[in-house]
Design a protein that fits this description.
The protein has 100 residues and is of the alpha+beta class. It is 32% helix and 33% strand. The chain has helices spanning 2-17, 80-90, 95-99, and strands at 26-34, 43-46, 51-63, 68-74. Strands 1, 2, 3 and 4 form a four-stranded antiparallel beta sheet that branches. A hairpin with a 4-residue loop joins strand 3 (51-63) and strand 4. The longest helix has 16 residues, at 2-17.
Length: 100
């Protein structure tokens, strides 16, 4: 999908902008966001309201200073244990690719 490629390139450029290619420590920051759409979706835990409800997840990886270098939006079919492994595998940076 063309959009996925553009998102990946944008995140790679952001990594360069915040000099995150020199970092060796990143923080994983998952968020459960209330879903307000009409689609049928599974219920999940909404941390901000401390209750269960329609939810989708925004999983971020950012530098210690707080600069985001990766984001993944997902429904709640997969729990955090599965999303974490998948997102870590998706989060990769190739300095040589960014040069060209």
């Amino acid at each position: 999908m063309g959009g996925d490629h553009n998102i990946e390139k944008l995140l790679q450029e952001n990594i360069l902008l915040v000099s995150a290619e020199f970092e060796d420590l990143y923080l994983y920051d998952p968020h459960g966001i209330p879903y307000t759409g009409q689609a049928r979706t599974l219920k999940g835990w909404i941390g901000s309201s401390h209750q269960a409800g329609k939810v989708y997840y925004q999983d971020f990886i950012h530098t210690v200073e707080g600069s985001p270098v990766f984001v993944d939006l997902d429904d709640n079919f997969y729990d955090l244990r599965e999303r974490f492994i998948g997102n870590i595998n998706k989060f990769h940076y190739h300095p040589i690719d960014a040069i060209f």
